TrEMBL record:
<feature type="domain" description="Radical SAM core">
    <location>
        <begin position="24"/>
        <end position="267"/>
    </location>
</feature>
<comment type="similarity">
    <text>Belongs to the anaerobic coproporphyrinogen-III oxidase family. HemW subfamily.</text>
</comment>
<keyword id="KW-0408">Iron</keyword>
<keyword id="KW-0004">4Fe-4S</keyword>
<dbReference type="InterPro" id="IPR058240">
    <property type="entry name" value="rSAM_sf"/>
</dbReference>
<dbReference type="GO" id="GO:0051539">
    <property type="term" value="F:4 iron, 4 sulfur cluster binding"/>
</dbReference>
<dbReference type="GO" id="GO:0004109">
    <property type="term" value="F:coproporphyrinogen oxidase activity"/>
</dbReference>
<dbReference type="GO" id="GO:0005737">
    <property type="term" value="C:cytoplasm"/>
</dbReference>
<keyword id="KW-0949">S-adenosyl-L-methionine</keyword>
<dbReference type="InterPro" id="IPR013785">
    <property type="entry name" value="Aldolase_TIM"/>
</dbReference>
<keyword id="KW-0963">Cytoplasm</keyword>
<dbReference type="InterPro" id="IPR004559">
    <property type="entry name" value="HemW-like"/>
</dbReference>
<keyword id="KW-0479">Metal-binding</keyword>
<keyword id="KW-0349">Heme</keyword>
<dbReference type="GO" id="GO:0046872">
    <property type="term" value="F:metal ion binding"/>
</dbReference>
<feature type="region of interest" description="Disordered">
    <location>
        <begin position="1"/>
        <end position="20"/>
    </location>
</feature>
<protein>
    <recommendedName>
        <fullName>Heme chaperone HemW</fullName>
    </recommendedName>
</protein>
Amino acid sequence: MPGVLPEGEPVPRDGSLPDTARSAVGARGFGVYVHVPFCASRCGYCDFNTYTAAELGGGASRETYADTVLAELALAARVLGDSPPPRVDTVFVGGGTPTLLPADDLARILDGIDRTWGLAAGAEVTTEANPESVTPESLRTLRAAGYTRISLGMQSAAPGVLAVLDRRHGPGRATAAAREARDAGFDHVNLDLIYGTPGETADDFAASLAQVVDAGVDHVSAYALIVEDGTRLAARMRRGELPYPSDDVAADRYLAAEAALGAAGFSWYEVSNWARSEAAACRHNLLYWTGADWWGLGPGAHSHVGGVRWWNVKHPSAYAERLAAGASPALARERLTGDEQHMEDVMLRLRLASGLPLEVLDDAGRAGAERARAGGLLDPGAYAEGRAVLTLRGRLLADAVVRDLLP
Protein backbone atom coordinates (compact mmCIF):
# COMPACT_ATOMS: atom_id res chain seq x y z
CA MET A 1 0.00 0.00 0.00
CA PRO A 2 1.11 3.61 -0.46
CA GLY A 3 3.65 4.95 2.02
CA VAL A 4 2.95 7.60 4.65
CA LEU A 5 3.25 11.32 3.90
CA PRO A 6 5.60 13.43 6.06
CA GLU A 7 4.37 15.77 8.76
CA GLY A 8 4.48 19.54 8.33
CA GLU A 9 2.85 22.84 9.20
CA PRO A 10 -0.80 23.49 8.26
CA VAL A 11 -1.61 24.99 4.86
CA PRO A 12 -4.11 27.90 4.64
CA ARG A 13 -7.48 26.81 3.32
CA ASP A 14 -6.99 28.86 0.17
CA GLY A 15 -3.48 27.45 -0.35
CA SER A 16 -1.85 30.88 -0.20
CA LEU A 17 1.93 31.13 -0.10
CA PRO A 18 4.23 33.61 1.66
CA ASP A 19 5.08 36.64 -0.49
CA THR A 20 8.75 35.68 -0.28
CA ALA A 21 8.00 32.36 -1.97
CA ARG A 22 6.06 33.95 -4.82
CA SER A 23 8.48 36.81 -5.45
CA ALA A 24 10.86 34.89 -7.72
CA VAL A 25 8.76 31.95 -8.90
CA GLY A 26 10.27 30.31 -11.96
CA ALA A 27 13.62 32.12 -11.72
CA ARG A 28 15.41 28.76 -12.00
CA GLY A 29 12.75 27.19 -14.22
CA PHE A 30 9.16 26.08 -13.66
CA GLY A 31 7.52 22.72 -14.25
CA VAL A 32 4.15 21.11 -13.67
CA TYR A 33 3.77 17.57 -12.38
CA VAL A 34 0.41 15.82 -12.78
CA HIS A 35 -0.19 12.70 -10.71
CA VAL A 36 -2.64 10.12 -12.07
CA PRO A 37 -3.25 7.63 -9.25
CA PHE A 38 -4.97 4.85 -11.15
CA CYS A 39 -3.60 1.38 -11.92
CA ALA A 40 -5.25 -1.69 -13.40
CA SER A 41 -3.50 -3.81 -10.76
CA ARG A 42 -0.88 -3.26 -8.06
CA CYS A 43 2.65 -4.46 -8.81
CA GLY A 44 4.18 -6.42 -5.96
CA TYR A 45 7.08 -3.98 -5.40
CA CYS A 46 5.09 -0.73 -5.64
CA ASP A 47 4.32 1.58 -2.71
CA PHE A 48 3.47 4.61 -4.85
CA ASN A 49 0.27 6.54 -4.22
CA THR A 50 -1.84 4.48 -6.63
CA TYR A 51 -5.20 2.76 -6.46
CA THR A 52 -6.94 -0.02 -8.32
CA ALA A 53 -10.68 0.21 -8.98
CA ALA A 54 -11.34 -1.94 -5.90
CA GLU A 55 -9.28 0.38 -3.69
CA LEU A 56 -10.85 3.66 -4.82
CA GLY A 57 -14.13 3.61 -2.97
CA GLY A 58 -16.70 6.34 -3.60
CA GLY A 59 -16.08 9.96 -4.46
CA ALA A 60 -13.39 9.44 -7.10
CA SER A 61 -13.37 8.05 -10.61
CA ARG A 62 -11.33 8.08 -13.76
CA GLU A 63 -14.26 9.62 -15.61
CA THR A 64 -14.20 12.85 -13.58
CA TYR A 65 -10.50 12.97 -12.78
CA ALA A 66 -9.42 15.41 -15.49
CA ASP A 67 -12.00 17.95 -14.30
CA THR A 68 -10.76 17.60 -10.71
CA VAL A 69 -7.16 18.23 -11.78
CA LEU A 70 -8.29 21.28 -13.73
CA ALA A 71 -10.00 22.54 -10.57
CA GLU A 72 -6.68 22.37 -8.72
CA LEU A 73 -5.01 24.13 -11.64
CA ALA A 74 -7.51 26.97 -11.28
CA LEU A 75 -6.66 27.17 -7.57
CA ALA A 76 -2.93 27.22 -8.41
CA ALA A 77 -3.51 30.17 -10.75
CA ARG A 78 -5.24 32.05 -7.91
CA VAL A 79 -2.44 31.25 -5.46
CA LEU A 80 0.33 32.51 -7.76
CA GLY A 81 -1.87 35.43 -8.80
CA ASP A 82 0.14 38.33 -10.20
CA SER A 83 3.45 36.46 -9.83
CA PRO A 84 3.02 33.53 -12.20
CA PRO A 85 5.97 31.72 -13.75
CA PRO A 86 7.33 33.28 -16.96
CA ARG A 87 6.34 30.10 -18.81
CA VAL A 88 6.01 26.37 -18.12
CA ASP A 89 9.26 24.74 -19.19
CA THR A 90 8.25 21.13 -18.58
CA VAL A 91 5.16 19.04 -17.85
CA PHE A 92 5.40 15.51 -16.49
CA VAL A 93 2.33 13.29 -16.12
CA GLY A 94 3.17 10.37 -13.84
CA GLY A 95 1.46 7.73 -11.81
CA GLY A 96 0.10 5.24 -11.45
CA THR A 97 -0.68 4.66 -15.07
CA PRO A 98 -1.61 7.98 -16.70
CA THR A 99 -2.57 6.27 -19.95
CA LEU A 100 -5.47 4.52 -18.22
CA LEU A 101 -7.15 7.89 -18.69
CA PRO A 102 -8.52 8.53 -22.18
CA ALA A 103 -5.95 10.28 -24.36
CA ASP A 104 -8.44 13.10 -24.83
CA ASP A 105 -8.47 13.71 -21.05
CA LEU A 106 -4.68 13.90 -20.97
CA ALA A 107 -4.92 16.35 -23.86
CA ARG A 108 -7.45 18.48 -21.91
CA ILE A 109 -5.16 18.64 -18.88
CA LEU A 110 -2.25 19.79 -21.02
CA ASP A 111 -4.41 22.38 -22.75
CA GLY A 112 -5.50 23.65 -19.33
CA ILE A 113 -1.88 24.12 -18.25
CA ASP A 114 -1.12 25.98 -21.46
CA ARG A 115 -4.17 28.24 -21.05
CA THR A 116 -3.30 28.94 -17.40
CA TRP A 117 0.38 29.75 -17.56
CA GLY A 118 1.47 29.15 -21.15
CA LEU A 119 3.90 26.51 -22.36
CA ALA A 120 7.37 27.79 -23.22
CA ALA A 121 8.49 27.41 -26.81
CA GLY A 122 9.92 23.91 -27.11
CA ALA A 123 8.50 22.82 -23.75
CA GLU A 124 9.11 19.18 -22.83
CA VAL A 125 5.84 17.32 -22.17
CA THR A 126 6.15 13.77 -20.83
CA THR A 127 3.70 11.07 -19.91
CA GLU A 128 4.49 7.81 -18.22
CA ALA A 129 2.77 4.70 -19.53
CA ASN A 130 2.62 1.00 -19.00
CA PRO A 131 3.32 -0.83 -22.27
CA GLU A 132 -0.06 -2.56 -22.34
CA SER A 133 -1.96 0.71 -21.74
CA VAL A 134 -1.14 2.38 -25.07
CA THR A 135 -2.05 1.73 -28.68
CA PRO A 136 -0.80 3.28 -31.91
CA GLU A 137 -4.01 5.33 -32.02
CA SER A 138 -3.77 6.64 -28.45
CA LEU A 139 -0.11 7.49 -28.99
CA ARG A 140 -0.95 9.51 -32.10
CA THR A 141 -3.64 11.38 -30.15
CA LEU A 142 -1.20 12.24 -27.37
CA ARG A 143 1.44 13.39 -29.81
CA ALA A 144 -1.06 15.58 -31.66
CA ALA A 145 -2.08 17.12 -28.32
CA GLY A 146 1.49 18.27 -27.67
CA TYR A 147 3.12 15.44 -25.73
CA THR A 148 6.74 15.23 -26.84
CA ARG A 149 8.16 12.48 -24.63
CA ILE A 150 6.97 9.15 -23.25
CA SER A 151 8.43 6.98 -20.50
CA LEU A 152 7.46 3.31 -20.66
CA GLY A 153 7.73 0.94 -17.70
CA MET A 154 9.54 -2.03 -19.18
CA GLN A 155 11.36 -3.25 -16.02
CA SER A 156 12.65 -6.46 -17.68
CA ALA A 157 12.54 -8.61 -20.78
CA ALA A 158 12.66 -11.85 -18.75
CA PRO A 159 9.25 -13.55 -18.22
CA GLY A 160 10.26 -14.87 -14.79
CA VAL A 161 11.34 -11.44 -13.59
CA LEU A 162 8.13 -9.82 -14.85
CA ALA A 163 6.17 -12.47 -12.96
CA VAL A 164 8.01 -11.78 -9.69
CA LEU A 165 7.32 -8.06 -10.13
CA ASP A 166 3.63 -8.75 -10.95
CA ARG A 167 3.86 -6.92 -14.27
CA ARG A 168 0.96 -7.42 -16.69
CA HIS A 169 2.75 -7.01 -20.02
CA GLY A 170 4.64 -9.69 -21.91
CA PRO A 171 8.42 -9.67 -22.54
CA GLY A 172 8.27 -7.97 -25.95
CA ARG A 173 5.46 -5.50 -25.41
CA ALA A 174 7.55 -2.65 -23.97
CA THR A 175 9.92 -2.44 -26.91
CA ALA A 176 7.02 -2.76 -29.33
CA ALA A 177 5.30 0.17 -27.59
CA ALA A 178 8.53 2.16 -27.81
CA ARG A 179 8.63 1.65 -31.58
CA GLU A 180 4.97 2.63 -31.84
CA ALA A 181 5.72 5.84 -29.95
CA ARG A 182 8.54 6.72 -32.33
CA ASP A 183 6.25 5.97 -35.27
CA ALA A 184 3.64 8.30 -33.71
CA GLY A 185 6.20 11.11 -33.78
CA PHE A 186 7.35 11.37 -30.16
CA ASP A 187 10.63 13.28 -29.99
CA HIS A 188 11.98 11.25 -27.08
CA VAL A 189 11.22 7.77 -25.76
CA ASN A 190 12.45 6.31 -22.46
CA LEU A 191 12.40 2.74 -21.22
CA ASP A 192 12.60 2.05 -17.46
CA LEU A 193 14.47 -0.99 -16.15
CA ILE A 194 14.62 -2.52 -12.68
CA TYR A 195 17.59 -4.70 -11.82
CA GLY A 196 18.38 -7.02 -8.93
CA THR A 197 14.98 -8.74 -8.77
CA PRO A 198 15.19 -12.13 -7.02
CA GLY A 199 15.73 -14.81 -9.63
CA GLU A 200 17.11 -12.43 -12.26
CA THR A 201 20.32 -13.76 -13.84
CA ALA A 202 23.11 -11.82 -15.47
CA ASP A 203 21.90 -13.20 -18.81
CA ASP A 204 18.36 -11.97 -18.08
CA PHE A 205 19.60 -8.44 -17.52
CA ALA A 206 21.89 -8.56 -20.54
CA ALA A 207 18.91 -9.59 -22.68
CA SER A 208 16.87 -6.69 -21.27
CA LEU A 209 19.63 -4.23 -22.12
CA ALA A 210 19.95 -5.68 -25.62
CA GLN A 211 16.22 -5.27 -26.22
CA VAL A 212 16.35 -1.67 -25.00
CA VAL A 213 19.19 -0.83 -27.38
CA ASP A 214 17.47 -2.60 -30.29
CA ALA A 215 14.25 -0.65 -29.64
CA GLY A 216 15.93 2.57 -30.79
CA VAL A 217 15.02 4.64 -27.73
CA ASP A 218 17.11 7.68 -26.81
CA HIS A 219 16.81 7.48 -23.01
CA VAL A 220 17.10 4.68 -20.45
CA SER A 221 16.48 4.73 -16.70
CA ALA A 222 17.73 1.79 -14.62
CA TYR A 223 17.09 1.42 -10.90
CA ALA A 224 18.04 -1.21 -8.35
CA LEU A 225 15.02 -2.96 -6.85
CA ILE A 226 14.11 -1.45 -3.49
CA VAL A 227 11.91 -3.54 -1.23
CA GLU A 228 9.45 -1.22 0.49
CA ASP A 229 7.63 -2.10 3.70
CA GLY A 230 3.97 -2.90 3.20
CA THR A 231 4.34 -4.26 -0.32
CA ARG A 232 3.46 -7.76 -1.45
CA LEU A 233 7.09 -8.34 -2.41
CA ALA A 234 8.28 -7.46 1.10
CA ALA A 235 5.76 -9.89 2.58
CA ARG A 236 6.97 -12.70 0.31
CA MET A 237 10.55 -12.07 1.39
CA ARG A 238 9.63 -12.06 5.08
CA ARG A 239 7.95 -15.43 4.57
CA GLY A 240 11.10 -16.76 2.93
CA GLU A 241 9.46 -17.30 -0.47
CA LEU A 242 12.02 -15.02 -2.16
CA PRO A 243 15.55 -13.96 -1.18
CA TYR A 244 16.31 -10.33 -0.41
CA PRO A 245 18.18 -8.36 -3.12
CA SER A 246 21.97 -8.45 -3.01
CA ASP A 247 24.01 -5.23 -3.00
CA ASP A 248 26.84 -7.02 -4.80
CA VAL A 249 24.50 -8.23 -7.53
CA ALA A 250 23.03 -4.74 -7.88
CA ALA A 251 26.54 -3.31 -8.34
CA ASP A 252 27.30 -5.92 -11.01
CA ARG A 253 24.07 -5.07 -12.82
CA TYR A 254 24.87 -1.35 -12.74
CA LEU A 255 28.31 -1.97 -14.25
CA ALA A 256 26.68 -4.13 -16.93
CA ALA A 257 24.23 -1.31 -17.73
CA GLU A 258 27.02 1.25 -18.01
CA ALA A 259 29.03 -1.03 -20.30
CA ALA A 260 26.15 -1.99 -22.60
CA LEU A 261 24.61 1.45 -22.83
CA GLY A 262 27.96 3.17 -23.23
CA ALA A 263 28.85 0.84 -26.10
CA ALA A 264 25.50 1.70 -27.74
CA GLY A 265 26.15 5.46 -27.63
CA PHE A 266 24.39 6.41 -24.38
CA SER A 267 26.05 8.60 -21.75
CA TRP A 268 25.08 8.87 -18.11
CA TYR A 269 23.88 12.31 -17.03
CA GLU A 270 22.46 11.25 -13.64
CA VAL A 271 23.44 8.17 -11.66
CA SER A 272 20.40 6.16 -12.81
CA ASN A 273 19.78 7.79 -16.19
CA TRP A 274 21.45 7.57 -19.60
CA ALA A 275 20.69 9.52 -22.80
CA ARG A 276 21.93 9.35 -26.40
CA SER A 277 22.35 13.14 -26.50
CA GLU A 278 22.05 16.18 -24.27
CA ALA A 279 18.70 16.93 -25.90
CA ALA A 280 17.38 13.52 -24.87
CA ALA A 281 17.95 14.08 -21.12
CA CYS A 282 14.74 14.46 -19.10
CA ARG A 283 14.48 18.19 -18.57
CA HIS A 284 11.68 17.86 -16.03
CA ASN A 285 13.78 15.72 -13.72
CA LEU A 286 16.67 18.14 -14.18
CA LEU A 287 14.38 20.86 -12.79
CA TYR A 288 13.98 18.77 -9.63
CA TRP A 289 17.69 18.06 -9.37
CA THR A 290 18.74 21.69 -9.79
CA GLY A 291 16.36 23.34 -7.32
CA ALA A 292 13.76 24.81 -9.68
CA ASP A 293 10.06 25.39 -8.90
CA TRP A 294 7.17 23.13 -9.79
CA TRP A 295 3.49 22.74 -9.01
CA GLY A 296 2.29 19.20 -8.38
CA LEU A 297 -1.33 18.53 -9.33
CA GLY A 298 -3.17 15.46 -8.04
CA PRO A 299 -3.56 13.41 -4.84
CA GLY A 300 -0.29 12.97 -2.97
CA ALA A 301 1.55 15.26 -5.39
CA HIS A 302 4.40 17.38 -4.00
CA SER A 303 5.11 20.98 -5.04
CA HIS A 304 7.96 23.42 -4.50
CA VAL A 305 7.83 27.18 -4.93
CA GLY A 306 10.44 29.57 -3.57
CA GLY A 307 11.72 27.32 -0.80
CA VAL A 308 8.25 26.20 0.33
CA ARG A 309 7.39 22.56 -0.27
CA TRP A 310 3.92 21.09 0.24
CA TRP A 311 2.07 17.86 -0.46
CA ASN A 312 -1.55 17.06 -1.20
CA VAL A 313 -3.84 14.65 0.61
CA LYS A 314 -3.27 11.16 -0.68
CA HIS A 315 -6.60 9.56 -1.41
CA PRO A 316 -8.36 10.60 -4.63
CA SER A 317 -11.70 10.91 -2.83
CA ALA A 318 -10.34 13.29 -0.18
CA TYR A 319 -8.56 15.25 -2.91
CA ALA A 320 -11.77 15.64 -4.93
CA GLU A 321 -13.82 16.56 -1.84
CA ARG A 322 -11.48 19.38 -0.84
CA LEU A 323 -11.48 20.91 -4.30
CA ALA A 324 -15.27 20.59 -4.59
CA ALA A 325 -15.51 22.59 -1.35
CA GLY A 326 -13.27 25.31 -2.78
CA ALA A 327 -10.35 24.41 -0.52
CA SER A 328 -6.74 23.63 -1.24
CA PRO A 329 -6.02 19.88 -1.36
CA ALA A 330 -2.67 20.48 0.37
CA LEU A 331 -2.27 18.46 3.57
CA ALA A 332 0.86 20.11 5.00
CA ARG A 333 3.98 22.05 4.04
CA GLU A 334 7.49 22.94 5.14
CA ARG A 335 9.65 26.01 4.66
CA LEU A 336 13.15 24.89 3.79
CA THR A 337 15.93 26.58 5.71
CA GLY A 338 19.14 27.65 4.02
CA ASP A 339 20.93 24.64 5.51
CA GLU A 340 18.23 22.26 4.25
CA GLN A 341 18.36 23.73 0.75
CA HIS A 342 22.14 23.41 0.76
CA MET A 343 21.95 19.78 1.86
CA GLU A 344 19.47 18.91 -0.88
CA ASP A 345 21.52 20.81 -3.46
CA VAL A 346 24.62 18.77 -2.60
CA MET A 347 22.69 15.47 -2.54
CA LEU A 348 21.06 16.02 -5.91
CA ARG A 349 23.74 17.85 -7.91
CA LEU A 350 26.41 15.33 -6.98
CA ARG A 351 24.36 12.67 -8.77
CA LEU A 352 24.62 14.62 -12.03
CA ALA A 353 27.39 14.19 -14.59
CA SER A 354 27.77 17.98 -14.54
CA GLY A 355 28.72 17.64 -10.89
CA LEU A 356 28.81 20.00 -7.96
CA PRO A 357 30.91 23.19 -7.74
CA LEU A 358 33.42 22.71 -4.93
CA GLU A 359 32.97 26.35 -3.94
CA VAL A 360 29.53 25.61 -2.47
CA LEU A 361 31.08 23.30 0.14
CA ASP A 362 32.30 24.43 3.55
CA ASP A 363 35.77 23.54 4.85
CA ALA A 364 34.65 20.15 6.17
CA GLY A 365 32.89 19.38 2.88
CA ARG A 366 35.96 20.28 0.82
CA ALA A 367 38.08 18.04 3.06
CA GLY A 368 35.59 15.25 2.42
CA ALA A 369 35.76 15.91 -1.31
CA GLU A 370 39.53 15.66 -1.20
CA ARG A 371 39.28 12.28 0.54
CA ALA A 372 36.81 11.12 -2.08
CA ARG A 373 39.12 12.27 -4.90
CA ALA A 374 42.09 10.51 -3.31
CA GLY A 375 39.97 7.36 -2.96
CA GLY A 376 39.08 7.33 -6.66
CA LEU A 377 35.46 8.36 -6.13
CA LEU A 378 35.69 11.81 -7.78
CA ASP A 379 37.07 12.52 -11.23
CA PRO A 380 40.52 14.15 -10.87
CA GLY A 381 40.23 16.24 -14.03
CA ALA A 382 36.91 17.77 -13.02
CA TYR A 383 38.23 18.22 -9.48
CA ALA A 384 41.14 20.27 -10.79
CA GLU A 385 38.59 22.48 -12.56
CA GLY A 386 36.66 23.04 -9.32
CA ARG A 387 33.87 20.46 -9.67
CA ALA A 388 33.02 17.28 -7.80
CA VAL A 389 32.05 14.70 -10.44
CA LEU A 390 31.57 11.04 -9.54
CA THR A 391 33.72 8.39 -11.18
CA LEU A 392 32.12 5.07 -12.13
CA ARG A 393 33.18 3.65 -8.76
CA GLY A 394 31.91 6.83 -7.14
CA ARG A 395 28.49 6.30 -8.70
CA LEU A 396 28.31 2.91 -6.97
CA LEU A 397 29.06 4.64 -3.66
CA ALA A 398 27.24 7.92 -4.28
CA ASP A 399 25.41 7.95 -0.94
CA ALA A 400 28.68 7.51 0.95
CA VAL A 401 30.28 10.36 -0.99
CA VAL A 402 27.34 12.65 -0.18
CA ARG A 403 27.70 11.87 3.52
CA ASP A 404 31.37 12.85 3.30
CA LEU A 405 30.54 16.22 1.75
CA LEU A 406 27.90 17.24 4.29
CA PRO A 407 28.45 18.22 7.94
